[in-house]
Amino acid sequence: MTDTAEDLSHAHETQGAADNPVIQAVEEKSTESAIAFAGHPLHAMAVHFPIALVVCTFGIDLIYWFTGDAFWHRVGVWSSGGAFLAGVGAGLIGTVELLAVPGIRARAASWAHAIAAMVLLAIIGTNWGGRLTERMDVLPHGMILSLLGCVMAGLAGWHGGKLIFDHGIGLMVSPKD
């Protein structure tokens, strides 16, 4: 019987955790969500809206670039504003989770996710503020910020996914499972 590379990698990671008292101490801390509705973590549910609106804002900017129609300029203001406001809501929930749950707070990956998300909020807030006050032209500045927002949403989402899938953050598994 031969072991696959994945099995060997997992065995090596498990052995490293058993040998390292710091990793053991981190893994013993609770990672259950502090803010949940019917067992479902709210932060994981709330992040979909700002991510979708960030991507939509970039798409809207592309349409505005090709058509020049003022309608798409107005839609971009609403889309970027929705992304920012929904992002602030998701960020507040995520911040409470980060500060309230010891198992989340103890992991460096959680802080990387939080920093990437705060940079994303700064980018989409600047994008919305510039559009709202008309101090920024959509082309090229708004489009550049929209593209940067998409990149940062991908980075923050990747770190968030690693927290869920690799570290089990926010998962509430019943004893039956």
From TrEMBL:
Keywords: Membrane, Plasmid, Transmembrane, Transmembrane helix. The keyword Transmembrane applies. Coiled coil: none annotated. Residues 1-20 are annotated as: Disordered. Residues 39-170 form the DUF2231 domain. The chain crosses the membrane at residues 47-66, 78-101, 108-126, 138-158. The lineage of its organism: Bacteria, Pseudomonadati, Pseudomonadota, Alphaproteobacteria, Rhodobacterales. This is DUF2231 domain-containing protein. InterPro entries: DUF2231_TM. It holds the Pfam family DUF2231. The keyword Transmembrane helix applies.
